[in-house]
Amino acid sequence: MRWKTVKELPDSHFQRLVGVKRSTFIKMIETIKFQQNQRRNNRGRPSKICLEDQLLIMLMYYREYRTFFHIAVEYNISEAQCWRIVRKIEDVLISSKLFHLPGKKALLENDKEFEVVVIDVGESPIERPKKTAKILFGQKKAAYNKDTNCSR
Fold this sequence. Notes:
8 helices, mainly alpha, 61% helix
């Protein structure tokens, strides 16, 4: 999925595909651009992948559990470069502290009641034939004797 095709989607489809709302995605892009302007690190070759695609790579990696190889093939980059992009984008977003999830204490202090559904899944035995010495060793010797034409 590339930014060119994703940006044309309606908001509901965008969220289903990317995993975050469009407004959150735009805030993430703004945060990344702000962090890059703060660093003013213009050394090296500029990336051939735009920031939006880099963020999509990171979200794709976390949402779909795709391997770096699969993502790298889609974007025509190396696996190592894909890993570097994911690490760079997640480090920037973590350091901004805008996209943190509430901690355990915040959930406990909250007045909302959570409904928990517990499903008991009992183990059911699988019927398998009994493994006896006759089955394990008898058939092997018989097959071996037929193949080698020797008797013991």
